[in-house]
Amino acid sequence: MKSIDLNGLWDISYSREAILTDWLPDSESYTGKMNVPEYWEDSPSSFDEIDCLRNPEYEEIDFSKYGTESPDSSLPFVYGTVYYRRNFDWDGESTCSLEVGGVFLECACFVNGRYAGYHLGHSTGFEFSIDRDMLKVGRNELVLAVSNLRDDRLGCIIRGFKGRSGGISGSVVMHGYRTSRIVDARVELSTDCREVTCFVEVAGAGMACEWELIDPCSGEIKLAGRCDLAPGENSFVFSRGDLRLWSDSDPALYRLRFAYEDAGACEFSRLVGFRRMVVDGTRLLLNGEAVFLRGGTEHAYYPETCNAPKDCETYEKMLRTIKSYSFNWLRFHTSVPNEAYMTAADKVGIMIQVEPPYGFGEEEWIDILKACRRHPSVVIYCAGNEELLDERLLGFLHYMRQLQQHYVPDGLFSPQEALRGIEYTWSKTDLGTPLSSGPFRHNPVRLEKLLGFSDVLAQYAWGNLSYNTSGGDWRLLDKRQAVYDKPILSHELGILSTYLDFSLRERYVGTRIGDRLFATVETMLKAAGIWEFRDLYYRHSCLWARDLRKHCLETARHVKRLAGYDVLGIIDFHWHRHCYPCGMLNEFYELKAGDCIDDILEYNSPSVLLADFGNRFVYASGEKKSVCVTLSNYGGSIGAGSCLAWRFGESRGTRKIDEPIANGCLIDLHSFELPMPSVTSPEKVRFDVELLDAEGEVRCRNHWYLWVFPRVEMSLPGGFDDVVDAALLERVANGERLLVSGNGLRRLSMSFQSSTAGRMTGNLATVISVHPMLGDFPHEGYCSWQFKDMLNGGSAVDVGGFYPKGVLPVLDVASSYKKPIRQSPLFEIAIGKGVIVFCGVKLLSEDPAGCWLMKCLRSYLASETCGKSAPCVEASALLAPISDGNAGSSSTDMGFDARAQKKKVIPK
User: Fold this and answer.
1) What is the CATH number of domain 622-709?
2) Per residue in 369-401, pLDDT tens?
3) Residue 697 β-bridge partners
C-alpha cells in the first residue's frame, strides 16, 4: 500500500460540543461537504443549513464606544467542532500512519468508529499512527474531528479578523508501508562549516538505502552514497566539500533524496540548506561571517485571504518584496509560519524567529522544534512575548531551552520578547526583589539566571527605539546594555502610525474582511468635519513616520551590542486594535506615500553610514557642529585604501582610510568640525556621505537635512498676551492685533513623537498651509525636524467649536482618526476690527528655528496683510463651554498588551 492522497471533498457533520474520544455523530448527520485542505470560512455554503455557533468575541467596531483602548478586529466565524468523514482502502498488510498538514485548533482521529489519537496545537502538522487491529481489509472509514472551541491558546495567527477560524490547513495523506518507511530527514552543519550530519528517522524495520544530494537548478548530483538505517533516528556524516552554504545573501538549497525498497521502489526527498548561526560575544555569525538581523515583526495579516495562504508562491512574492528593501529576518510574533511560508523563506533567503502561542506546553514546543529544524531559514527559537519573567517562568523557560538544545542544537534560544520583570515593569511588583539601580533599575538575580541559559536577548530599549523614537539616545543604550553580555535583538522598533489610506478601500470589497476598517473611520471623520482631508492627512502622516523611522533605525545601528532588530512593522497589520497602520509598506506590500526605496536602503542595509547629529538638526548661521561619521559594517570586509567623502551645501571633503575595515564592526571613520553656512535667510542644507573602496566602488552612502537660520537675538518665551477671556476679546474687537498662546481655551499637549500605531489618541500628521505669517520660514507642508523643539512641550487649541469647516488653519495637527479632534497650534481669527494670532508651539531663545518663527510672527502682526485672510469668528464661540479630552495625548501602554496575555499554567 503506497501513500494515499486524501485531499478533496469530505462529508462533514457539525457539533456545538467539544471533542469527545468516545462519541461520534451518527451517519445521517453528515449532511454537508467540504474540501480538504480548507478553512471553514472559505466554504460558507457548507454551513448554510446548519445552526452553528459563531465567534462569541465578535463585535463590529464603533470607535465612539471606546475610551482609550480599542479591541482587536473580529468576524463571526463558525465556532464548534466539525467531523470530517471519508473512506480509504487497506490492503491487509501495510502499517498505516495518517499525516495531517495542520488544523485549527485541535484534532482527534477515529478509524472505523474507534479512537485512534489526538493532537493539540495549530502551529505544526502531525501524524497519527493507526493500530492494525483497527483496520479491516478493503473499505475503512476515517473521521477527523476538528474543533476551535479551546480558548487556552493565543497568538497572532489566531487573533483579529481570522481569529480562531477552524479548518484543516494542510494536506491529509495516509502513508502505508510493509516493512519500513522514511518518516523525516534533516541536516545539521558543524560549527566549523566543514561537515554535515544527516539525520534520518525510520519507522518499522531497518533498511538499506541510497542517498544523493541534487542541485535543484541544474539537476546535477553533487554527492551520493549508501547507508544502512535502523529503526528510529539515524545519523551519518559527510564532508561538505564545495557544497554552497545557505545564507540570506545566497540561499543555496539542495534536494536530499533517499531511495529504498518496501514492496517496490520507494523514495523520500526534501530541500535542505547548510548553515550554522553561532554567538560570538555580542555578535551573531552566520557560517562564520558576522551578520546583522534587519527584520520585521510578522503579525499574520492577510487582507486578501484573511487566513494564512497555503501556497508557497504567495509567500515568495511577499518575501522577495521585503528583501528588496534589504530585510533579511522575520520575527513571527507568537506564531509559527506554515510549511509553505518556511519553504518560501528557505528559497528567498529570509531568516526566521519562531514563537509558540501563549499557553503552550512541552509537547507543543517539541512539535515546533521538530517541524522547524528542517528549514535552514529558522535560526532562532523564542519562548514568548512580553510575559512577566518571574522566578517560576524563568524555571519553565530554562526547561524549554534544554529541550531546544536537545532537539535543535544548531538553533539559537531567545527566552522572551522584551524582558518584563527584569528590565522594565507594567505593575509596581513586576521587578520583584532584589533590585539594582545601576546602570538602570533591574533585578540582577533574575538577569543572571536568564543570561545563564540564553543565546540572544530581545531587549526592549526602554522605548528609545519605539515609543520615543524622536528622543532615542544610543549613548544611553550603550550605557544601560552593558549588563547584557549577549547579542541583543531590539524588540519592536518604530511602531510609528500613519493615517488610514482610503485609496485601498476598494481592494477590500468582496473579501472576508470587507471595508469595515474604513466604514467606522469614515463615520468618525465625517462627524468631526474633517472627512475631506483624509488623503492629505495620510500623505503627511507618511512623511512624519518616514523621518522618525530613519532616525530610529540609525539610532539602533549606532548601539554597540545590537545584533539586529525587528521593525514593527514592515507592513500594516490592521487586525490589531482595529486599524494598525504601522508599516513602511501598506498591507499589500506597496511603499507608502513620500518614501523611496533608495532612501530606505541607506539606513537598512548590511552596511550603514551614520552621522552623530543626535536628535538636533537645527543650527544658527555660522555655528560649528562636531560630527563623527561611523560605519556599521556587515556587508563584508573592506580593504585598505578606502575613502570617505562628504558634501555639505557647497563644501566638499574626503578622508583616506589606510587600514582595512573588518566585517561585523562598528567603527568611527572620521570626526571633524562642520561649519554651518552664513545665511541671511533660512536654508535647508543637505549633508551627504559615501564610502568608496580602493577601486572607487561606492560601498554605502547616506544623507541628512539640516536647517540653518540667521541669528536672531530674542528673549523667549515672551511677547504673548494673557489669558483669552472676555476682556481680551473686547480689545481685539476694537481693533487690536494680539499674539496669544491660547491659555484659557481647551488646549491639547503636543510632541514631535507621532502616535504609536493603533492607539485611540495621539497625533498622526501635520499640515502647514502657505500663509504670510510664516514669512520665509522653511517647510515643505509638514513639520519635520526643524519643528522638533517647538512641538515638544507645545500645545494645540481645540478649534472644533469655532473654526470654519472645510478650512485648514495655518498649522493643522491631525489627531487619531479613532477619536478625531480639530486642533491647531498656529492659526489666526478675526474678531470685530482686530485679529488674534494663536501660537501654541514652544518658542525658546536657544532654538534658532523658534526665534526665527517669532520674528516672522511679529513682522506679520505689524504688516498690512495681517488678518486679510483670517476667518471671522464670534467672540462668544471662543468662550463657549468646552469638555475635557485627551485626543492630543501620546501616552500609551509601553511594552505590554493586555489583550495578548493569557495566564500560563506552568508545571510545578
Assistant:
1) 2.60.40.10
2) 999 999 999 999 999 999 999 999 999 999 999
3) none
